[in-house]
Specification:
heterodimer; A: about 425 residues; Urease, subunit C, domain 1; eight-stranded mixed beta sheet; about 30% helix; globular; B: about 325 residues; Rossmann fold; 2 domains; five-stranded parallel beta sheet; four-stranded parallel beta sheet; 9 strands
């Protein structure tokens, strides 16, 4: 299959490209990129006035399979991904059971091979059952194809075990992804600590519970010169700590999610449980710090933290509701609306945060449009507006923090390994 | 009643944060006219005849539940009480399902008391009948706030310009929050007073003064609202020792000597004598604690009356 995409504005940060070009895919690869490619093809797509960029590499996705197929499956989650312009996802290991052993990885790999619509990479757990007590067999996980490890949803409390994990991961060349949260400090909190928790009468979660743990995770990595990746950065102090660590040469990378730069705790006023996320939506000042961190490169990656939950787990009392919002189908549009249109990032910057950087950090051959690269690309109408509606989601769950929002930017086509996996 | 044109558009009463000054004035004026009924020989009017009010209480409460029940009965409504101590998710039916069942039983108003902040708002989103918040977690207790304000208005003839101090566990108090929103909107000046640990972050942004000095809180105050201290609370938050609290924050005759002579002392009840307030003050000349109880009925009559008018209006709009 040969697909020719003509007249689009091609954005490829890996090759410092941002200009009108044509792209030809052949089989699973991109075969040519250039001005007016003249050739026959099985399909020609006119991308005039549209953005052509690498498919999104979302390194923080909960596909829920195995164990919670009522929330999401590899099949439904990857269909949602395709619709959202996401061609690679990193599946988080907090499934039932957790992905903490070779057999678990094999079983998941089998499900992926049978049902996934886009590429799925696997993160294993750091500790058995994500309990924080006993390190997983990381080399065993790696042999089965795991590319990262994380106890996401929980932090490894023991310094000693965390240090061992970083050492082992360094040796095995897998990425350690930290859910940095000191539960001793966040306790039973459910919203940002401050005026919002006071106004709503809910227990608060301090910024401290996040940045103290980030400080620790960075310190441990620095000690042995290991890489570490900080997930879902939400507050100003965290951004500053990461900024300083990068300056002194620590191999730390960081990610944030769209809701941490698009929504604030003030949006929670009617106890909308879809906006209950962990870490919580923070203050306006924190949002601005996260945006600044994205702009100056402190935060390398935007990832959705796609966290599907059933209606039964969400449409209940706020403090009983599960934490998390789905995000695969809105992340590109939220980023365009909140970052591109206000001029905070340009298209190359966006493609860096959502495709190129995560590929580099995960050490996978994705996130570029060069000839010979995997034909993972998306075509976007950058100015087209739409409203986020429950009935339009392909994800099995509908718990989006952005329901009802007007967004700019529509994914028109998604190609994954040369195959059209979504067309609007 | 009032000459002002009544304009009430709320199906539910969830909190005073969500009401305008005019909304509150309408409720206060209506309560004033209902208050008189309570002193009649035959204490009943037909305003809600044929309506059913369901008291759905997930927390033990006698005074608020009885007050709502009396209020509904004075308006000739039928009243059903459901008391349950099991909260949803743990076992049994969810709050939404219970609410929908009550709606299917053709009740008109649910009065809900719940241990979770936001529970009343969630219920209101999920049923078409009226929901009145009778206290949700630490969030709001709007009818208590209104009855406190009503009591002040009866005493002083106005609310605007009054200095009102609220003393006690502000952090965990729905009564404090409703009072703050309501009093601020009506132009009173509010100060909250408690040990640091019981002052929630950002409370000043609600437009109140904050102090941990009880004498300062009492000085110049026209009224002091004394909150119940719940020393039995099982929470990770540190709590002051009971005796120490009484020594530093308890409202005593001794302390009141330094305040305005006619300072009004309020308490939402039930009172802990010798814990947050001395018996002498609770039973003394400045106390309006029992008047609050009576006024509470009038306020709840006004609330039940107006929310049912709003649902009526909505129904008529749907028919047209």
């Amino acid at each position: 299959m040969r697909i020719l995409i003509k007249n689009g504005r091609v954005v490829d940060p890996a090759n410092k490209i941002d200009g009108d070009m044509d792209i030809l895919t052949e089989g699973v690869k991109i075969s040519r990129v250039g001005r007016s490619v003249k050739t026959d093809a099985d399909m020609i797509i006119d991308a005039k006035d549209k953005i052509v960029m690498p498919g999104i590499v979302d390194m923080h996705v909960h596909l829920r399979e195995p164990g919670r197929e009522d929330k999401e499956t590899v099949a439904t989650g990857t269909k949602a991904a395709a619709k959202g312009g996401v061609t690679s996802v990193l599946a988080m290991p907090n499934t039932l059971p957790a992905i903490d052993c070779a057999e678990g990885v094999k079983a998941l790999m089998d499900i992926i091979n049978r049902t996934a619509v886009v590429d799925v990479f696997i993160s294993g757990a750091i500790t058995a059952g994500r309990s924080g007590r006993e390190l997983c067999d990381i080399s065993g996980l790696k042999k089965e194809g795991v590319i990262a490890i994380s106890d996401d949803g929980s932090s490894v409390d023991s310094d000693e075990i965390m240090l061992k994990a970083l050492e082992k991961a360094k040796k095995e060349r897998v990425l350690v992804i930290c859910h940095s949260e000191d539960k001793g400090l966040s306790g039973k909190g459910v919203v940002n600590l401050g005026f919002t928790s006071t106004r709503l009468g809910l227990r608060g979660i301090s910024n401290e519970s996040e940045y103290k743990r980030i400080e620790r995770d960075i310190k441990l990595a620095e000690k042995i010169d290991a890489s570490v990746h900080i997930a879902h950065v939400s507050c100003a102090e965290s951004v500053e700590i990461i900024r300083k660590a990068k300056k002194r040469g620590v191999r730390v990378t960081a990610e944030t999610a769209p809701h941490y730069f698009a929504l604030s705790d003030e949006d929670l006023l009617d106890y909308n449980t879809n906006m209950r996320v962990n870490p919580p939506l923070r203050s306006r000042d924190d949002i601005n710090a996260v945006k600044q961190g994205l702009k100056d490169g402190t935060i390398d990656v935007i990832a959705s933290d796609h966290a599907p939950h059933t209606e039964n787990e969400k449409e209940i009392e706020f403090e009983y509701a599960e934490s998390g919002s789905i995000g695969l189908e809105t992340e590109v549009a939220v980023a365009i609306t909140e970052l591109i249109h206000p001029g905070l990032l340009d298209w190359r910057g966006l493609a860096e945060k959502m495709a190129f950087n995560p590929s580099r950090i995960l050490n996978i051959e994705k996130g570029t449009l060069a000839a010979g690269a995997s034909a993972d690309l998306i075509i976007i109408s950058p100015d087209k507006e739409w409203t986020v509606k429950k009935e339009d989601f392909l994800s099995k769950s509908k718990n989006s923090a952005f329901l009802g929002r007007r967004l700019k930017g529509v994914v028109e086509y998604t190609l994954c390994k040369g195959e059209m996996v979504y067309k609007s | 009643m009032t000459k002002r044109k009544a304009n009430w558009a709320h199906k539910d009463l969830l909190g005073l944060e969500y009401l305008s000054k005019e909304d509150m004035e309408l409720l206060l004026d209506t309560a004033d006219s209902f208050r008189e009924i309570l002193d009649r020989k035959i204490k009943k009017v037909p305003a809600l005849r044929g309506k059913t009010v369901v008291n759905l209480f997930y927390e033990p409460s006698t005074r608020t539940r009885v007050s709502f029940e009396v209020a509904a009965k004075r308006l000739s409504a039928d009243v059903i009480n459901i008391a349950t101590e099991t909260s949803s998710v743990k076992k049994g039916e969810t709050l939404n399902d219970t609410g929908k069942n009550i709606e299917a039983l053709k009740a008109d108003i649910i009065v809900v008391r719940h241990n979770c902040s936001g529970a009343a708002a969630m219920l209101a989103r999920n049923v078409n009948i009226s929901v009145v918040n009778a206290g949700d977690g630490w969030h709001e207790h709007p009818t208590q706030g209104l009855l406190d304000i009503f009591t002040l208005k009866k005493k002083f003839g106005r609310v605007e310009g009054l200095n009102v101090s609220i003393v006690g566990d502000i952090a965990h108090s729905r009564v404090a929050r409703s009072n703050i929103w309501g009093l601020n909107k009506l132009g009173a000046k509010v100060t909250v007073c408690a040990p640091d640990i019981l002052i929630p972050p950002g409370i000043d942004k609600m437009g109140v003064g904050v102090t941990d000095d009880i004498d300062r809180a009492l000085k110049g105050a026209d009224a002091v609202n004394v909150l119940r201290m719940q020393f039995e609370r099982d929470d990770k938050d540190a709590f002051p020792k009971q005796l120490e609290y009484f020594k530093n924050f308890g409202i005593t005759e001794e302390r009141l000597k330094k305040a305005k002579r006619d300072i009004v002392v309020m308490h939402p009840g039930p009172i802990n004598r010798g814990v947050e307030i001395s018996s002498g003050v609770a039973d003394g000349a400045n106390s309006v604690i029992l008047e609050q109880v009576t006024n509470g009925i009038a306020i709840r009559m006004a609330v039940l009356f107006w929310v049912s008018q709003a649902t009526e209006k909505k129904k008529n709009e749907n028919i047209n």
